[in-house]
Each structure stands twice: as C-alpha cells, then as structure tokens.
Design goal:
Helix content is 23%, strand content 30%. With 449 residues, it is α+β, with helices and mostly antiparallel strands. The chain has 2 domains: 2-222, no CATH class; 228-335, no CATH class. The longest helix has 14 residues, at 34-47.
C-alpha cells in the first residue's frame, strides 16, 4: 500500500505531495492531472521491473516529454518519493518465504537527463536512489495503527548512493536479515556502479535475500492498472492462461474459471463465483448468475438474467464486462497489492454508483490483523455521482493552478491535489476545500456552472 507520493519535474507536477488512504478517489475535470498521477504510479511500477528507456516507452509521449515543461524550458530531472506499508511476510519467485520487521519504508528516486557538449541529450540515468525505514515517531500516516507498523532498530538505509556530493559513484544494497532458506545474512553490501545507471538498483532485486527491498519491488511491480478492452474481454481464454487478470481483461474467462475452481466446496460448488454474481446483480438488477463454460481447449462465460435467458460474452454490454472484470478482482480471496482504475462509473446506472463505491471501499478495508493481505484501491473520476457517494476523507480534488515565478515573472501551470473535504472556519485553501467547491470544479468542466 502506498501512503504518500512526492513528485517533482514529471509532466505537470512541481514539488507535488499527496497522501493516500486504503481507498482514495481522485476527483476532477479532464486535463487536471488525474491521468498524469496514474502515469507516475505506472512509471514507478515499470522502473521496478525494467530499464529506464523501456519504462518510458510504455508511457504516453516521447521520453523527453515526460519531463516537466515550463516557459523557462524543460526540467533536467524528475524526482519521486513514496512511502509504503508492506505485508509482513511473503514468498519470492523461487518459493522462498521471507518476513520483514519494518513494514513502513520510504523510497526515493531521481532521474536526470545527461546533456552533451552541443546541448543534445545523451541519455537518462539514475542520479539518486535510496530506501530507508520510516521511524514510528515521524510516521505521518494517521490511519495506520501501531499494531501494523512493526519495529526495527535499523539505522542504515537498505539502499543508497555513496560518493562525494554531486559525484555519486556507486549504489550500495545492504542485506537485512534471514529468510526461510537461511541464505540471507548481514555482511558487506553489494556495490553497483552509478556512473551509467540506466536502471534502478531496486529492479535488480530478484530474491528474498533482501526481504525488505524484495517486498517493496514486488509491491510496485505488481501494481495493477485496469484498462479494460471489451472486445478482448469477450473472447474465450486458453486453459493455460494466467490466473491473474490482465490489464485489458483479455483472460477474464480463465480468471473466472480459476476463482470458481479454486474456491469451490461441496456446499458451494461455484465458490466465489456466487459472490461475483450477487455483487453484479446489486449493480445490474437484471443479472441473476454469472456462468463459466469449460470447452475442450478454453474457457468461456456468460450471464443468466432474472427472466431465465442466457447471454454469452459475445453480446454482453461493455458496461457489464467492465463491472464483471472489476468484481473478479474484488472477490479474489488472494487479492493484494494496489489496483488503479479510471472512471469506474462507466456503464453503471447512476442510481447504482453508491453500491459500487461501497464494494470498492469494503474490498480495501484496513484491518488491524497483521496477517491480512493489504489491498489498496485508487480510482479517478469526473462524475458528480461518484463524488456524492464518497466519504470526505476519501476525496482527492484535482485541478490546475497558475503561479507567477517571482524571479522570471513567467506564468506556470501545475497540477494541484487537495486531500479530504473540510468544514469549519480554519480552512487552508491551498490544502483543503469544501464539498461544494469540488462540485463546482466538476460542473464547470461540463458547462453547468
């Protein structure tokens, strides 16, 4: 779970800071930076898996266009920091179990453009990377209880750059305690050259030999961004397809079959597929049951309506497919990590949006039980109906603001996001706003105000 993000020099972000909750909704008009925030999260996820160039190619625009642009030129660097709450244990890709003592970590990263003698860009490199424990006394995430945080007396960072200031020459990765296999141990740090760092050191962590860093990398790399393609979701799925939903939902049939078979009991032969059917019916009253069909080489699915008619996935509406894909994630007994979903209201009748928001909120409910898998839901929307269904503390209001640079007197615009609707007289307009103001921002975009 990400509890805080800081961004500077990326797209429309300038000295940007934002706190998240287990369920947070970014509310704002188009072109206010909502998608740019998801792009920043996606970029961090990609940087935990691959090199900088490959990560940038997965985003919208050319690499140089990802750096913030102002009338004064392009920013030479982009900086990120995130604070996270991790699960207390896990299993790495080779089946080794690990446990971590400190569940609250802060990770910082800076990427800079290197310019040649003629002013031409020669590449983009890591110029700062660090991962530390967040001490309990300085932990600002008020919704995280002490029972969940854990404790550690560690003083040194798990990962940092070393060398003279301005001339960091190496990245040090420090071991941090035993895994189940006993392979991990404290000792001399692993040193990587930072002279031509074209990927993050975090992306090189592939085993539980470094439990805290592995848990952090796993959290970032497994972040899911739902961008459902109804045409792809309708197709049958090969029986050897992945069991976790693809971003475009192209393996939805296989996921539904996996959930059915993996949770089936004698009393409930369809397992959590029954729960998916119930939740879908709460959003689309004409639906009675979701059905999965086992073919010779693949799986397919359909829905049965309350009047007894069956409809295959080929004729199900786009909105129903979007909801079915979302519910397959929310009802997964093994759900964990972070789900980012744009405009969840698409295809949902306005009168049912409240029920949808309740499902999202319940799925991300934070428990004081340490063994529970953490699951975070982040959405963005420009729907007044969604705004009306949100609790005050769940709202993140997004808009663009203009500032005058005091030195150059040039006008610059940037994304602003304010957390939590406030009431009362002691209102700081730079950080807080009223629900009526959020509503005005949305209606101004649609021409209603």
């Amino acid at each position: 779970m990400i509890t805080r993000i800081e961004i500077d020099g990326f797209k429309t972000f300038d000295q940007f800071e934002l706190d998240f909750r287990p369920f947070s909704a970014v509310v704002g008009p188009n072109a206010s930076g909502k998608s740019n925030l998801f792009d920043a999260l996606r970029f961090l996820s990609l940087l935990a898996q691959t090199d900088i160039r490959s990560a940038m190619q997965e985003l919208r625009g050319e690499p140089e266009e990802l750096f913030r642009r102002t009338p004064m030129g392009t920013s030479p660097a982009m900086r990120f920091a995130i604070e996270v709450l991790l699960n207390e244990d896990g299993i790495d890709a080779f089946g080794t179990r690990y446990q971590i003592k400190a569940r609250r970590l802060r990770y910082e990263l800076c990427l800079s453009i290197r310019v040649g003698p003629r002013g031409n860009p020669q590449g983009i490199f890591v110029t700062h990377e660090r991962c530390d424990i967040i001490p309990r006394k300085s932990d600002a995430a008020t919704f995280v209880s002490a029972k969940l945080v854990g404790s550690s007396g560690r003083k040194t960072p798990f990962l940092s750059m070393v060398g003279e200031e301005g001339k960091k020459s190496a990245i040090e990765i420090r071991q941090d305690g035993p895994a189940e296999s006993g392979t991990s141990k404290r000792g001399r740090p692993i040193t990587l050259s930072a002279a031509e760092a074209s990927r993050t050191a975090l992306s090189t962590i592939s085993t539980a030999e470094f439990p805290h860093l592995y848990a952090l990398r796993h959290l970032l790399s497994s972040m899911r961004f739902l961008e459902i393609n109804p045409a792809a979701a309708r197709r049958p799925s090969d029986k050897f397809e992945a069991k976790f939903l693809h971003p475009d939902a192209s393996n939805l049939a296989a996921v539904l079959a996996y959930l059915r078979d993996g949770s089936a009991t004698e009393a409930r032969p369809d397992g959590v597929l029954n729960d998916i059917s119930t939740d879908l019916a709460s959003l689309i009253p004409s639906v009675k049951k979701v059905e999965v069909f086992d073919e010779a080489k693949d799986y397919s699915f359909g829905v049965r309506t309350s009047d007894g008619l069956s409809f295959s996935s080929r004729v199900i509406s786009d909105g129903t497919l979007r909801l079915l894909a979302l519910l397959s994630i929310l009802n997964d007994p093994d759900r964990a990590g972070i789900l980012c979903f744009e405009e969840p209201e698409n295809g949902v009748h306005e009168g049912r949006i409240g029920a949808l928001i309740e499902l999202l909120r319940d799925a991300s409910m934070l428990s004081d039980i340490a063994e529970m898998r953490l699951f975070q839901v982040l959405i963005n929307t420009h729907s007044p109906a969604v705004l009306g269904a949100l609790l005050d503390e769940e709202i993140i209001a997004a808009d663009m603001v203009a500032e005058i640079d005091p030195q150059t007197r040039s006008r610059q615009t940037k994304t602003r996001m304010r957390v939590g609707v406030q009431t009362g007289l002691e209102l700081d307009p730079s950080r807080h706003l009223t629900r009526a103001e959020v509503d005005r921002i949305l209606r101004r975009q649609s021409g209603e105000a």
